[in-house]
Design a protein that fits this description.
2 domains, two-stranded parallel sheet, Rossmann fold, alpha/beta
Length: about 230
């Protein structure tokens, strides 16, 4: 499964950890892959450390790391290091002997891994999904403006013949406003895919036991939980 977002800071890592935690608790062998970690020094914990802290002892694989908090292609160029390619990610995922692989991208679907070359365009997370034939889970922000970015992501997936499994709101605020509440109804409409869960803001600070319970309550059956979408008024 590919996990992408409508932007940065929308809760992709928490959603990835929640799906991983539920699968691990159900007895599945789980691996979480981060193709490119940016904005983190070599000796600092990255997103995968958060996944393990929240989900438990799942396997993890980080393929590249760059210090600047930028798109992977830009961060690699500035660091003077080789960029990761979608082909390398696909090869690494196929080599894993597990029941479920979650590939968490950086930012959104079309953020560039590299700058391309003379014979091919730049590669993105969409190319990883195509190479693996894997469904894509879209993590959306809660508030105003998300309907456009969610719709654009869904359109980009359809144009490539890729499956949008569904949408999860990664950090729903306690003090939600009208936009956040109505977006729960509108996200399935604009994406053409079901709403598969809503996780509360701040969940990433939970203890592991509490996190697993929150994952069960916040994700739907397709992702291993028991959440159900609200009925339309």
């Amino acid at each position: 499964m590919i996990v992408t977002g409508t932007g940065t800071g929308v809760g992709k890592t928490v959603v990835t950890a929640a799906v991983a935690a539920l699968a691990h608790a159900a007895g599945q062998r789980v691996a979480v892959v981060k193709p490119a970690q940016t904005g983190v020094a070599p000796d600092e914990p990255g997103d995968l450390a958060d996944v393990v802290r929240l989900a438990g002892p799942v396997a993890t694989l980080e393929l590249a790391r760059y210090p600047d908090p930028l798109a992977p292609a830009t961060a690699a160029r500035r660091a003077g290091r080789p960029a990761i390619t979608a082909d390398e990610v696909v090869g690494a995922v196929r080599a894993l002997d597990v029941d479920l692989v979650l590939v968490e991208g950086a930012g959104g679907l079309l953020v560039r891994f590299d700058d391309g070359g003379d014979t091919r365009p730049p590669q993105t997370l969409a190319d990883v999904a195509a190479g693996l034939g894997a469904p894509v889970l879209l993590v959306a922000s809660a508030g105003l403006g998300v309907l456009n970015t969610a719709a654009l992501t869904a359109e980009a997936l359809r144009s490539r013949g890729l499956e949008l499994l569904g949408v999860v709101v990664g950090a729903f605020p306690d003090d939600d406003d009208l936009a956040a509440r109505t977006n729960l109804d509108d996200l399935p409409t604009v994406t053409g895919a079901p709403l598969l869960g809503v996780l509360p803001a701040g969940l990433g600070a939970s203890a592991p036991a509490g996190f697993l319970d929150a994952a069960r309550c916040g994700l739907g059956p397709l992702l291993g939980g028991r959440w159900s979408a609200p009925s339309r008024a």
